[in-house]
Design goal:
By secondary structure, the chain is mainly alpha-helical. It is 72% helix and 2% strand. The chain contains eleven helices and two strands. The chain has helices spanning 5-20, 23-35, 41-72, 77-96, 120-129, 136-146, 152-167, 170-175, 180-190, 194-214, 217-220, and strands at residues 107-108, 130-131.
């Protein structure tokens, strides 16, 4: 059994867009846009594209690595799916019950000073390696799926798409700066919509547990 178009493409894109509108992610993006204010519109667009490409590449490399690890442990893939399914369900129920703080962890693998840089390449690395707390569950959920893709290329592709659509909407705000006020307003609205993330993770949990119970890893990798 192979992963579907939905799992490999649509889901990473959807999760990336969902991550983009998470409140603390919006805050980070506003900081990034602020660092580029002195550039012309053309320069700012070029900087955003560089930032997006760098961040996407970092995410893709994470996906390739976790898929490589999962590939080496193919004998216990069924256990992976079951464990991740239980974790996804727990995250979803935490969001739905109003206890999202229990599963939000800030991950910082790069110096915080990098976020104050002007260079979009440095900023792309900083945002790719430093994960805000509200986006961490989404990223973790997708990494769990990447670990079970069976191929390094699929793991890279899934996470690259996630990183791409986590950042690509910034192009709109680089071209039309007056829309940044809309980002602030959206951030406020999203603070009360944890149920959306919760429902998504409950569905992911059910799917992962089903996969663990009914998919044979040997058939899945085509051996």
């Amino acid at each position: 059994m192979e992963f579907s178009l939905f799992t490999l493409i649509i889901l990473p894109i959807g999760l990336g867009l969902l991550g983009f509108i998470e409140p603390c992610t919006i805050g980070g993006h506003l900081i990034f846009l602020d660092t580029q204010n002195k550039r012309t519109k053309t320069e700012k667009l070029s900087a955003v594209l560089m930032f997006t490409a760098t961040r996407s590449l970092v995410a893709g490399l994470f996906g390739a690595f976790i898929a490589f690890v999962g590939q080496k442990l193919i004998g216990v893939q069924t256990g992976f799916w079951l464990v991740f399914g239980i974790i996804y369900l727990s995250i979803g129920l935490a969001f739905l019950s109003g206890h999202a703080g229990l599963v939000k962890w800030k991950i910082e693998l790069a110096p915080s000073t990098w976020k104050k840089a002007q260079n979009p390449l440095t900023l792309g690395l900083a945002f790719g390696l430093n994960i805000p707390a509200c986006a961490a569950p989404i990223l973790f959920g997708l990494l769990g799926l990447a670990a079970t893709t069976g191929t390094i290329a699929a793991g890279f592709g899934m996470m690259f798409l996630f990183g791409l659509f986590l950042s690509l909407p910034l192009v709109i705000f680089a071209i039309t700066p007056r829309f940044t006020g809309w980002l602030n307003a959206l951030s406020g609205k999203m603070k009360g919509m944890g149920w959306l993330v919760g429902a998504l993770f409950v569905l992911l949990g059910i799917w992962s547990i089903w996969f663990g119970l009914y998919v044979d890893p040997a058939n899945w990798v085509g051996s």
